[in-house]
Write a structure and sequence with these properties.
There is one protein chain. The protein is 55% helix and 14% strand. By secondary structure, it is an alpha/beta fold. The chain binds shikimate-3-phosphate (S3P). Shikimate-3-phosphate binds next to helix 3.
């Protein structure tokens, strides 16, 4: 089976969709942020806070490489910035993957970001900064194989069904 790689902005629902998809397909799932936390003993937010974004990006690329080369997880949830980096997209392209962009409205992403508190997402400290990043990143997200529009909180099951039908060609 092809690997499925889920991308999208912070708060787009990557972890939830990836988890539900993996349960549905009865396969293992890897959440890159969680994996980084396990490998480094620090969360992405802490790494960015302590060592800066560039240091985090290097760690993120190594973790992604390990996930693709060493893990048997068939579903991978990326961090919000992972797919926007060309080197990471090239890595993913070297493996057979279906890349899925959860194109969640900014309003929904922001509601979730704001709810999760200031310390979790240092790259989206306020609505204006988050909005500018959201707009800037759309061009990269558009390079994913499949785009799923999401505007509500209860669309996980629908997203899973759409990914499944893409996989089976239905
Ligand atoms: C980031 C998103 C975060 C995390 C890090 C950087 C980004 O993941 O990887 O804070 O650049 O958008 P989530 O998308 O899971 O919040």
């Amino acid at each position: 089976m092809k690997r499925i790689v889920i991308t999208g902005f912070m708060g787009s629902g990557k972890t939830s969709v990836a988890g539900a998809l993996a349960r549905r397909l009865k396969c293992a799932m890897l959440d890159l942020d969680f994996d980084i936390t396990k490998r480094e003993g620090r969360s992405p937010a802490n790494i960015i806070g302590d060592d800066g974004e560039s240091a985090f990006r290097r760690i993120e690329t190594s973790a992604l490489r390990a996930a693709l080369e060493e893990s048997d997880a068939k579903v991978i949830a990326l961090g919000g910035g992972t797919w926007t980096i060309q080197e990471n997209r090239e890595l993913i392209a070297r493996h057979e993957c279906l890349t899925v962009w959860l194109d969640t409205t900014f309003e929904l992403c922001w509601r979730r970001i704001a709810r999760s508190g200031d310390s979790i997402r240092p790259l989206a400290p306020d609505m204006g900064t988050a909005r500018a990043l959201y707009d800037r990143r759309r061009a990269s997200y558009q390079l994913a194989n499949l785009r799923l529009e999401i505007s509500g909180d209860d669309e996980t099951a629908q997203a899973v069904a759409q990914i499944e039908s893409e996989l089976t060609g239905a």
